[in-house]
Task: structure prediction
Amino acid sequence: MKIRDIRQCFFVKKQLLSRIRYVMRISVVLLTGVFLSISTMAFPQRVTVKLKNAPLKEFFETLQKQVDVALLFSENIVNHKRISVNEKDIQLKDLLERELPKHQLDFKEFNGQITIVPNPKKAIKKESIKPTVDIQEDITIKGRVFNVAEPPVALENVNISLKGGATLGITGSGGYYTVTAPKGAYIVFSAIGYHSREVFVNSNESNLTISLQEDISDVEEVVVVGMTEMQKKHIASSVASLDVSSNIANKPITNLSQSLQGGVTGLTVQQGSGLPGGDAATIKIRGISTMNSSDPLVLVDGIPMDMNHIDPVTVESVTILKDAAAAAIYGARAANGVILITTKRGKAGQINVLYDGYYGFQSPTILPEFVDAPTYMRTYNYASLASGGSVLYDDEQIRKTESGEDPINYPNTNWTKELIDEYAPLTSHSLALSGGNDVARFAVTGNYMYQKGMLPVNKMDRFNLRANTTVSLSKKFLVNLDVLGIRRNTLYPNRGLGNGGIRMLDDLYRLPPNVLPKYPAEEGWPTIYGRYADIVNPIAYAEVGGHIGYQYDQATINLQPKWTVTDNLNLSGQFSYRLNSDVYRQERDNFYFFDYYSKQLVQTWTVQRNSYSDKRDTYLYASGALDYTKRLDKHYIFALGGFSVERFNEGYWDMSALASAYTKINYSYDDRYLAEVAFRADGSSKFGPNKKWGYFPSVAVGWNIHNESFFNIPAVNNLKIRASYGHLGNENIGYYQYQNLISATNGTESAWGNPDISWEKVRITDLGFDLSIFNNKFGLTFDYYDKLTTDMLMLPRVPPSGALGSVRLNAGKISNKGLEAQITYNEQVNPNLSFSIRPGITYNKNEILELAGGVFGESGIVRQREGYALGSYYGYVSDGILQLSNFDEYGRANVLLVNDSQGPGDINYKDLNDDGVINDDDQQIIGDPTPRLNYFANFSVNYKNFDIEVLLQGAGNHDYSANLGGKSSGYLWHPLNMSASGGIPTTYRAANSWRENNQDAIYPRIKTTPGTNVFISDYWLFNARYMRVKFIQAGYRLNNTLLNKYGIKSSRIYLNAQNPFLFSGVKMADPESQGGSWTYGIMKTFTVGLTANF
Result:
């Protein structure tokens, strides 16, 4: 006979009682006799039990297999209780009478059934309890138990027991408790609807305040959305939450933006540089829909802030608002989506100390491998002959260089190894303290990070200090006071810093390998560096070229009072002030270059660009809001209304302000039918007097089909269909665009303004569904969206007579559509093994529908054209490489050439308009650098104390152009331009360039005057699809029993690799960074770390 949960027997028991009443009317005496006979049959049965520290439920299951009566019990009264017993052939009654009181349980025998019931008043004989630990002494512990809420609520009837042993007691009124437990044991706090909490008994901590976290299902989960928190089941808009424990915790990320990659569909995260202090990733939500900034609005604890200024250890949650219904309440700047970040707050309970630190090194994902000196000399000779010149290096010079017999006069320098540090150290250390009680709670976190760059004179160190405090002034009034301080120092070589790159890297593509970095030191003389024409020796620049330094400081205060007017009505406010300071220093001393042999002065670096500047920005934010929540029978209503004002001062001159009013209503009927309505009005100082205000409404509806009575599919836990429509705005343009500007120097007009410009308008339609099946093991989220940007703010072409430049207009229209799908699968194989899989894919396509005049931008590789994607590549269309067969014996071509300089081995171009001339009129859109397809897959496995996680991330077909930067790009220009001004090919380029004996080569011939081969064309486009292993992390949780003796609650060591592997067809660059020869590429990072709780 199988054990039955007592709750399952309720209906049966009710029928049985009705029958008993009927029988009693016939014969009370007969019924009593039957009961007595059944009773005598139950307890004479004998059992044998041998268990060690087993769950109490297993104890009852063992008994049930040996007796013929039903053992009934509630799961709630046996959870978290364990038992050790070793008895052979003992009467069932004797065993129950002896063991159950140890757990504050009793039993009742009735009608052939034995029912296990709680009995906290039952006396427990201490000597009858078999301890599971080596008891040295008993300690009296007292305190209170709260839930995790703001403000925290005291919990009554929380069960307190020894882990694997007896019940010690329960909390009483106000959540107070007093229990006695052996030192060195674990006590467990458990309550229905909450996660259990284990605490180590230590003689130094006899007063413990405990916080219990609610145990809620996925649909009951509360997420931060639209200035409030709301359960997922009540949300009809497109909202996604980032898994903080997977994407952020224990990752060696230098900036928080890097952690968002591979976490949520629709979120495109691209890291363009690995430069210390400049390696933040760019983030786009659902593609690009404007020619202005497409960056999303990022709010940290309710205020706009750069997320890269946040220590990842302090992050509590990250929520992505994708569609108009979710983001409309933030109207003015929400057209590109919203990212909501909350930081950790203190919880009522004992003080917790957390250390999280790691140490490791970084190296470039891709390093150029250049030809050695002998190969360079031979290649130069060929290039010179191909360009009509003569041989520069004779055989004897090449031989001596190759032999290495005279490294001073015939050097063979590997400039990459001389300049690049392939094992640049990286370290981070965070220390967090948190705790408090029902009156005051705090969370204080300090972080120090140091990052050495791969170049000399290149590093970053950063200090963060955050203090989040919550004070409950009364049961109905609390105040959050948060303070943040940041200092970041960065140092770079004084050599062409900008746009995530350093020109010193470009020097690698120019300086020949037969030049010595520096000559042997001679007493009485300064260091003498090798020179070649006008090319700067990067080693000299690193050692004597000075440096550029930045110091960034930030101080932020954030005050949030909240008054619970009634149980349903809350009044809240927010006041925030931020001060930023940027200090810039550029320094270089006089330096003199001498010739090594003659000791004559050949060049002087004078003091130049020694400069200093500082800038201070301030930001002020104030808001007030009233929210109302009510549940009436099957109706759920949430209403929010408020206002906000913001003012931003940038530097000493520029200022902007924004005033807003907003409202939002959420309605749910029977948790089946959902509706959301939001409206926001924004007034911006960036627009003229009659164009300041924008109005942004939205609506969303949802249907929880799984809650319908007709939907009876047990395997489906959640099925929601969503639809939304709304309007958002964008004011992300410069200051004073609607005004004519007058020069402070001479009093004349310096720029025209347009008083009629106003908000960009974005209309978003979203359709989607959420599905969870098989006890929420498998989940699927799907969305289709359609974004249309109208009245796009843009600068059209400057007319010939436009001496003051063009005037910004509301003139563009862009379509942006896409699909998103994300799958989650979680499996608990057994108590020791679990795994999860989370793949996601996003498809996005944008198209320019209208532009003022039909074109935008008339120079460079990137052009905007109606009917094409934003930022498309523009250039010539190639037709292979010219071969010997294209020329007769006199050198006359049988194909159309650009000019007479072309010959065999040069790129052939198409005459698209058939006018007999190849010129600018033959150019067209040739490529798109923006990937339409982005994907990721996250895999994690936990086995006992071990865990491992792998994140794959990639992008589908898009284009990388070696013409980036125009004709002067190092990837293209220098390797083809082996002239007196320098230029050195990579080994791959040299081996695959056209020659008479290599006519099927990938690249055109190398010359000293490359001519038409560097034209911007599709010949230099490469398919930039890639997949990379973004993260690999392996961890081990140390044994708590051993650690607890030293005051350590838990600890984990981990190994982490970031960007360790890349799979791509692009040979010359990292396809994610999309950079040129100046670009400081993405770095591989390998770290070992430790987290410990005290």
About this structure: The chain has a mean pLDDT of 84. Residues 10-26 form the longest helix (17 residues).
